[in-house]
Write a structure and sequence with these properties.
single chain, 209 residues, alpha+beta, Nucleoside Triphosphate Pyrophosphohydrolase, 8-stranded mixed beta sheet, 5 helices, 8 strands, 27% strand
């Protein structure tokens, strides 16, 4: 669960989702006006806690029409010789398992394999699902303005060589005792520990929630 200091984000996220879903189905002008007002309140909460202008936040809200559902983030856990593959994110100089937001039209396994290739330079086979997490419920981990699920897959390198991308500045392998500073928005230690547990025990069931 989120702590009290970030409750404002939970409130803003819930209000935005209610407004988005309400605007999807409402046909009465009065109801539409009320849901627009809910949308504005959600945006104003964010304005009061960030440096973003109101217009930017409202524009972000309005490019996502339809019933509000969680966004999906996929991550590839690649373990070799007792070490896990991590990439250094250019945006914060911290490290994470390769991955990103899922794209419409891609199967989850194809998406994570492509993310590994694009961010690290390695080709990988996707072997099994490690976990499905409610990403917003990890302590101190906030997934932007939206509710998000994180899918982590155990993968095996099949080729390629280390190569950073326009999103990553370095590629390397690390053991559990010597992890670099993690980009907790994307990957935290408990996710990595779960990946190692699945690597050690292939019959381990997928974690969830």
């Amino acid at each position: 669960m989120s702590d009290h200091s970030s409750q404002w984000l939970d409130w803003a996220r819930e209000l935005q989702a209610l407004a988005q879903s309400g605007l999807t189905y409402s046909q009465i002008d009065y109801d539409i006006q009320r849901y627009r007002r809910l949308e504005e309140i959600a945006a104003q909460i964010l304005v009061s806690h960030t440096t973003l202008p109101l217009d930017t936040i409202l524009e972000n809200f309005r490019i996502q029409p339809g019933y509000a559902t969680p966004k999906i983030d996929v991550r590839g856990a690649v373990i070799r010789d007792g070490r896990i593959l991590l990439v250094q994110e250019r945006v914060d100089s911290c490290w994470a398992m390769p991955g990103g937001w899922a794209d419409v039209g891609d199967a989850p396994s194809a998406m994570v394999a492509r993310e590994i290739w694009e961010e690290s330079g390695y080709h990988a086979r996707v072997d099994k699902l490690v976990a499905v997490y409610d990403a917003n419920r990890f302590p101190r981990v906030r997934m932007e303005f939206y509710h998000a699920y994180k899918l982590v897959f155990l993968c095996t390198i099949t080729g390629g060589e280390p190569h950073p991308s326009n999103e990553t500045s370095a590629v390397d392998f690390f053991d559990l005792e010597h992890l670099p500073p993690l980009s907790s928005f994307r990957t935290n230690r408990s996710m990595i520990e779960e990946a190692f547990a699945h690597f050690t025990d292939p019959a381990r069931p997928a974690a969830f929630d």
